[in-house]
Q: What sequence folds into this?
């Protein structure tokens, strides 16, 4: 949405950089694809270091050669802060301003983090954050503006908010109550390759359990069996087009292709509208959990990483939740 609003104002403005298909459609002159940045964790990053280093070098070289008016870095603190560190000294005293969008989750980590605060104070001209509490945290050491989550700029979310303000229809109205056969459990495995591989088996275990395919203990009928029989749940996996082939493959390998439908929704408004039609969701922690909350979908949030990343995260985390409450 931010790039879209800029592209609506014809001028001499030229936007170049790392991005994906959505940004390219909105006018970005892509210098590199963003796929190498789609990795999270500690040990998970190690195999990708050569490609990330190569991307870092080419990005720094492009910035120093073009001397842009603004360098806007988006999320990916580990990569982007290294870019900023490499260019700041060379660009000191020049016209280039550095803007970072989506603040690092420093508030969620134990300790004062004095070094990171000093780095941001000395090297970032403007920090754009998503939530008011982040503005309160960062504004003491770097110029900070709260933009709000981009998701709330979409039509589907505004429509949901307006419906919440309107009087509810009579409970006897057939339109306000979903038919039993229409109950859909939406499964969202994440948008990164490593997330899909890690979480699809877990999500399909949910399907097996809820559909009664996981054998119960002898002589027992589980609560999940009763729920599945009563509500005749439908199961859908919502993924991005780039991951659909892998998701289909995993679903087929588990023999669940007859009861699990794999769908893609790239357009955000269509995705939100589809979420609103579902009864509940199980989602990998990430931006999608905010979309589900905004669409008023009851959601269970999960996240699985390798043992070392989980061990380290538990010791560094200041909170007990993997998702915003």
A:
């Amino acid at each position: 949405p931010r790039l879209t609003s800029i592209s609506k104002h014809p001028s001499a403005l030229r936007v170049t950089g790392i991005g994906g298909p959505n940004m390219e459609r909105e006018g970005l002159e892509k210098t590199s694809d963003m796929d190498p940045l789609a990795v999270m964790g500690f040990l998970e990053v190690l195999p990708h270091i050569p490609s990330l280093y190569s991307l870092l070098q080419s990005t720094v070289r492009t910035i120093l050669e073009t001397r842009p008016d603004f360098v806007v870095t988006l999320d990916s603190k580990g990569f982007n802060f290294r870019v900023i560190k490499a260019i700041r000294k060379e660009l000191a005293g020049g016209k280039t301003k550095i803007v970072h969008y989506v603040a690092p989750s420093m508030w969620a980590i134990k300790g004062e983090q004095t070094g990171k605060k000093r780095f941001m104070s000395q090297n970032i001209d403007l920090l754009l954050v998503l939530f008011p509490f982040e503005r309160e945290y960062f504004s003491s050491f770097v110029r900070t503006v709260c933009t709000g989550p981009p998701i709330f700029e979409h039509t589907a979310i505004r429509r949901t908010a307006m419906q919440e303000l309107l009087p509810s229809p009579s409970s006897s109205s057939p339109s306000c109550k979903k038919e039993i056969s229409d109950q859909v459990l939406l499964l969202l495995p994440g948008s990164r390759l490593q997330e899909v591989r890690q979480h699809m088996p877990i999500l399909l275990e949910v399907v097996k359990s809820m559909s009664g395919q996981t054998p119960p203990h002898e002589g027992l009928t589980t609560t999940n069996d009763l729920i599945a029989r009563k509500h005749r749940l439908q199961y859908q996996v919502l993924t991005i087009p780039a991951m659909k082939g892998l998701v289909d493959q995993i679903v087929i390998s588990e023999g669940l292709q007859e009861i699990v439908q794999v769908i893609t929704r790239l357009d955000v408004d269509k995705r939100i509208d589809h979420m609103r039609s579902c009864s509940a969701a199980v989602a990998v922690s990430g931006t999608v959990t905010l979309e589900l909350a905004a669409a008023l979908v009851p959601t269970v949030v999960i996240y699985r990483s390798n043992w070392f990343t989980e061990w380290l995260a538990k010791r560094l985390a200041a909170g007990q939740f993997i998702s915003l409450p």
